[in-house]
């Protein structure tokens, strides 16, 4: 079937090459090209297709389908991608397995990275190759039923037995059961387990241990281990998140990951070079999240924008033909600022991934000085990006009207998986408060006359902007954001300090200032996102692409400033706010002809999108009917439930 002419026209009105834009989105022409090649190669392998739509499958079927594809994938892995390239591997996973999770998701995202960051050279020699060849499947078991956020209160113990030189693992209470780790329930046979290290009755706090959970031949749990699946979740049901308990389970001393902290055979403890070095796997995932969430948001927008260009409803001036709903200003206001955010998140994602890779090298060379900065940055970024991604996806769903609510749109599934990110890798409020600690410390440095020692990301806190040029360009908007973030950070810090000085304990003062502190963290992070977007656009060479991205940036800066209006009342007059509002409406109109091309440029395949509404060819209605007919409920005209219950009920009512 040929392409829907409404989409053909949209594509013809685009002012730039989508391949050139993809090269900007994905960091290089080479990688953008590799993505297309991988997608093309996969489309020719029939075993990679879903055996039937995932949304009609039970959990067992989804997990089995994922495992089937992983097995097929293992035959093609080396021929499809450069296996040393994490981005290529991730693209392959996204294409083939989609976003509902699978039994290797944690193996790749946390188990292997933990071995790389935390295992000594000898330990890597022993386990890393096996993990990379997938001879073993691993997961990351940290969270317990009773504690996820407060790692210091974890209850699982690893007690060193000097006589045998082993650690004895125990789960002393119900609440100490590991709870949530992905792939733990049924798939993994090994795990990195975070447990309190106890030597001679002294508790050294949480440390990582390499623990075999299941027999490598029979896959049966080993004696001393209780393990299983925690049941269905809001989404992510292709993954078997699990529970795990230990009863006097012994592992050799050599199974504590010892790149940084060590326990010698006589039971001596050697401290790591930085107290939080064991948290690096979390920082690794957080540093990926802006990218991954940006792609979730992008997926929902591809669906909503394409559908809005083929969906006709109501009239504007021309009463002879209904308009595309994408022509309504409200629809544009709903969708275009999110397109800008998706671009901005992906640009930030590349930046934080690069920073993590650099930090890993630095730490391996004994330099831990960058840890606090990256922890603060990624804590704030994961919180803001996951929240705004959730908001954007939900708006995209509503922008698709009734069909958006159908699983045929697939947007609810994207939403369910994406908003999990508000919780995993540190609950958002908690992580905003981690960033707030860093911001408060920065203010205290300024108060103590040490402004010059501030890092580049917080130097603006020491500046003093009180007027803004009316002729607003992106850099002036940045100044507006700096003003808002600076003001809020000072106000929140002063509130905290005042409470503390009034005699309140540090903790209580912090708690009573915490809403204001989280607001400061959000503004600081949104400033970082905007500044990264501006810098990125500034570096683009292709003038057509750059032109469109400047238009998109204008949507971004005007929308974001309007969104924080309450924080800039002292800086901007109501006339200036009106001016910005009008600039936003003009920017929406300017970007309109490029809307479809901007989402096409994400180059997310139909196979990955799994959306009837978001099909690249725009042939929505005939496929929606086909999709509905494939519902298992339509296999028969008369359901057994009708025969068994409704018919007798109706018959009885007739009497
Ligand atoms: C061949 C190549 C293959 C590779 C390819 C890869 C393929 C991948 C395939 C995947 C497919 C992708 C498809 C996508 C589809 C699916 C997407 C979904 C994926 C789902 C995965 C979910 C995984 C989830 C995992 C988890 O959730 S794991 C558990 C996470 N848990 C947490 O995050 C807990 C949060 N809590 C904490 O981090 C801490 O407790 C705390 C930081 C809140 C507090 O810690 P603590 O009490 O110890 O400290 P204090 O608050 O007192 O602070 C003291 C000071 O320490 C500083 N600090 C804290 N942390 C750090 C740190 N990390 N670094 C540096 N400094 C740190 C504080 O700042 C304090 O400093 P100060 O005293 O100066 O103020
Ligand atoms: C899809 C998914 C996958 C996951 N995968 C894994 C995995 O592979 N491995 C693993 O180990 N874990 C995993 N987890 C667990 C996850 O990391 C934790 O659920 C998460 O860190 C939040 O911790 P919690 O559940 O203890 O929340 P809680 O801390 O109980 O949060 C409840 C509420 O308390 C608030 N709160 C808590 N502490 C504070 C504080 N100090 N100040 C202010 N407010 C506070 C929070 O903001 C929140 O509103 C996963 C979770 C999900 C949803």
UniProtKB/TrEMBL annotation:
A GO biological-process term: fatty acid beta-oxidation
Residues forming the catalytic site: 425 (proton acceptor)
Record bears the keyword Nucleotide-binding: yes
Major localization listed first in the record, in broad terms: other
Compartment(s) where it occurs, according to its Swiss-Prot or TrEMBL record: Peroxisome
Entry GO terms, CC: peroxisome
Sequence positions that bind FAD: 143, 182
Pfam families per the UniProt record, alphabetical: ACOX, ACOX_C_alpha1, Acyl-CoA_ox_N
GO MF annotation terms: acyl-CoA oxidase activity; ATP binding; FAD binding
Cofactor: FAD
Name of the protein described by the UniProt record: Acyl-coenzyme A oxidase
Source organism: Caenorhabditis briggsae
């Amino acid at each position: 079937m040929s392409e829907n002419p409404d989409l053909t026209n949209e594509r013809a009105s685009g002012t730039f090459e989508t391949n050139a834009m993809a090269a900007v989105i994905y960091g290089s022409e080479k990688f953008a090209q590799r993505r297309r090649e991988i997608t093309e190669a996969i489309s020719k392998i029939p075993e990679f297709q879903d055996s039937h739509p995932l949304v009609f499958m039970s959990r067992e079927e989804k997990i089995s389908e994922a495992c089937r594809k992983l097995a097929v994938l293992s035959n093609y892995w080396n021929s499809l991608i450069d296996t040393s390239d994490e981005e290529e591997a991730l693209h392959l996973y996204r294409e083939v397995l989609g976003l509902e999770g699978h039994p290797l998701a944690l193996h790749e995202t946390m188990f292997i990275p933990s071995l790389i960051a935390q295992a000594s050279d000898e330990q890597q020699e022993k386990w890393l190759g096996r993990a990379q060849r997938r001879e073993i499947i691993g997961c990351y078991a940290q969270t317990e039923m009773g504690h996820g956020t407060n790692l210091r209160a974890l209850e699982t113990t690893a007690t060193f037995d000097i006589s045998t030189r082993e650690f004895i693992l125990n789960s002393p209470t119900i609440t100490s059961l590991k709870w949530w780790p992905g792939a733990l329930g049924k798939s993994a046979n090994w795990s990195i387990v975070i447990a309190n290290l106890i030597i001679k009755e002294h508790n050294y706090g949480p440390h990582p241990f390499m623990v075999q959970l299941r027999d490598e031949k029979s896959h049966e749990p080993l004696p001393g281990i209780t393990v299983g699946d925690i049941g269905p979740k809001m989404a992510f049901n292709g993954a078997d998140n699990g529970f795990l308990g230990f009863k006097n389970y012994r592992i050799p001393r050599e199974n504590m990951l010892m790149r940084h902290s060590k326990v010698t055979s006589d039971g001596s403890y050697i401290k790591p070079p930085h107290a939080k070095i064991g948290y690096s796997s979390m920082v690794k995932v957080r540093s990926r999240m802006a990218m991954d969430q940006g792609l979730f948001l992008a997926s929902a927008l591809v669906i909503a924008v394409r559908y809005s260009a083929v969906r006709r409803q109501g009239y504007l001036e021309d009463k002879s033909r209904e308009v595309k709903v994408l022509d309504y200003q409200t629809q544009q206001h709903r969708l275009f600022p999110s397109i800008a955010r998706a671009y901005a998140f992906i640009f930030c994602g590349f930046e934080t991934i690069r920073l993590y890779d650099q930090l890993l090298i630095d730490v391996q060379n004994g330099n831990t000085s960058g840890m606090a900065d990256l922890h603060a940055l990624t804590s704030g970024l994961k919180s803001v990006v996951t929240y705004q991604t959730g908001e954007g996806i939900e708006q995209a769903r509503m922008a698709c009207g009734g069909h958006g609510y159908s699983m045929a749109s697939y947007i609810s599934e994207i939403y369910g998986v994406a908003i999990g990110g508000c919780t995993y890798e540190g609950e958002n409020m908690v992580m905003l408060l981690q960033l707030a600690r860093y911001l408060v410390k920065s203010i205290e440095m300024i108060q103590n006359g040490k402004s010059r020692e501030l890092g580049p990301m917080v130097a603006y806190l020491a500046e003093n902007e009180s007027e803004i040029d009316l002729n607003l360009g992106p850099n002036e908007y940045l100044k507006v954001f700096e003003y808002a973030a600076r003001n809020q950070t000072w106000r929140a810090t002063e509130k905290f300090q005042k409470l503390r000085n009034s005699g309140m304990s540090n903790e209580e003062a912090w708690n009573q200032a915490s809403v204001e502190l989280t607001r400061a963290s959000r503004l600081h992070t949104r400033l970082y996102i905007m500044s990264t977007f501006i810098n990125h656009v500034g570096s683009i060479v292709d003038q057509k692409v750059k032109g469109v991205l400047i238009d998109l940036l204008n949507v971004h800066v005007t929308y974001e400033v309007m969104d924080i209006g309450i924080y800039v009342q002292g800086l901007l007059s109501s006339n200036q706010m009106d001016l910005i509002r009008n600039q936003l409406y003009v920017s929406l109109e300017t970007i309109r002809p490029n809307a479809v091309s901007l989402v096409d440029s994400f180059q997310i395949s139909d196979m990955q999108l799994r959306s009837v509404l978001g099909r690249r060819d725009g042939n929505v209605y005939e496929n929606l009917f086909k999709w509905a007919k494939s519902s298992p409920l339509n296999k028969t005209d008369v359901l057994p439930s009708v025969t068994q219950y409704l018919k007798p009920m109706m018959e009885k009512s007739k009497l």
